[in-house]
Amino acid sequence: xxxxxxxxxxxxxxxxxxxxxxTMGSRIDATGKKVVLNEIGMTPEQIKxxxxxxxxxxxxxxxxxxxxxxxxxxLARIPVExxxxxxxxxxxxxITPQTLVIVVxxxxxxxxxxxxxxxxxxxxxxxxxxxxVVGSSVAREADDVxxxxxxxxxxxxxxxxxxxxxIAFYLFGLYLAQTLGTKDEAYIADVVSAxxxxxxxxEHILAQSETIKGVAxxxxxxxxxxxxxxxxxxxxxMEGSLKLKEISYIHSEAYAAGELKHGTLxxxxxxxxxxxxxxxxxLFEKTVSNIKEVKARGAxxxxxxxxxxxxxxxxxxxxxxxxxxxxxxxxxxxxxxxQLLSYYASLARGNDVDKPRNLAKSVTVE
Length: 366
Ligand code: F6R
What we know:
Layout: H1 8-14, H2 16-24, H3 44-48, E1 52-57, H4 59-76, E2 80-84, H5 85-88, E3 99-105, H6 111-122, E4 126-131, H7 137-141, E5 144-147, H8 160-180, H9 185-206, H10 209-219, E6 224-229, H11 232-248, E7 251-256, E8 273-278, H12 284-296, E9 300-306, H13 312-315, E10 318-322, H14 331-348
Parallel strand pairs: 1-2, 1-3, 3-4, 4-5, 6-7, 6-8, 8-9, 9-10
Helix pairs in contact: 2-8, 2-9, 4-8, 4-11, 8-9, 9-14, 10-14, 11-14
This protein binds fructose -6-phosphate.
Subunit structure: Homodimer.
GO cellular component, one term: cytosol
Function: Catalyzes the first step in hexosamine metabolism, converting fructose-6P into glucosamine-6P using glutamine as a nitrogen source.
């Protein structure tokens, strides 16, 4: 049932191109220029009445929600807050009938996420669920559901569910933009066409997994490391760091690259690995200057950049290129080398990759 792969996690990483295609599926119209979300019951009037969006989830799904915030704010210009479900309920969030609450859950059974959904409904908000399980508790109780068609995810560490959640956010963000008129048709058509190119680009990254394996083997000999990035890259490294901790048991921290000098830089010492994501063109120079700060303190930097960007190789120790895409879409590509990195680091350490210690696939207690 692992279809020739050694672990479910690796199989699921390799299933991502299919998961992207299936999640986009019939949600892109035949002309390939716009998004059709027949499953959304909200009328255009209801969509126009949305004043703010709350995205609520746990763990990896929360990290997808951080990207979701940027996607919705950039495409639809609606203010978005993203919260961890176990915090959301206890901070008296300001939920009104004009709030759209989006809950994100692979399993659809996470106790805190379900409780947040109920709290949102009690306060009169409309709830949209992004879930991988048709008929799950979250799917049944939400007003609208976007199913991620990633297929069953068996490995405890989430991979294809996360990236399918990103695809769901791109589709929903475009749908809002179409309805609200915040982006013109040509812009939307460009994003849709770039979305459709993602699966082949993921395949291109997967074909270079040996390079990542080499880096993972070096990383696996360390007990501490840092991930840095800015903007969307920061949200992706948060996911990369969680994945590495979860299955390799190596301590790592993800930092917004510009925050390092406000404390964390004190931890950088000779030889410490730093994984730097620098895919966002408008932030590139800023990230490079943060990379120089850690290099000057002896860090060994592994940089990930977009193809065609020659600069990074000059300042870091090793580089890995991902295919170029629109800045907003890079998370759907840049997370893939980080997934492979944690997989191979866990493998090098002889861990039980698919069933990490102390963790369960579905967390149904608060
Ligand atoms: C990490 C991981 C967890 C889940 C979290 C939420 O790899 O899998 O962080 O993302 O427990 O689970 P769902 O999405 O089922 O609500």
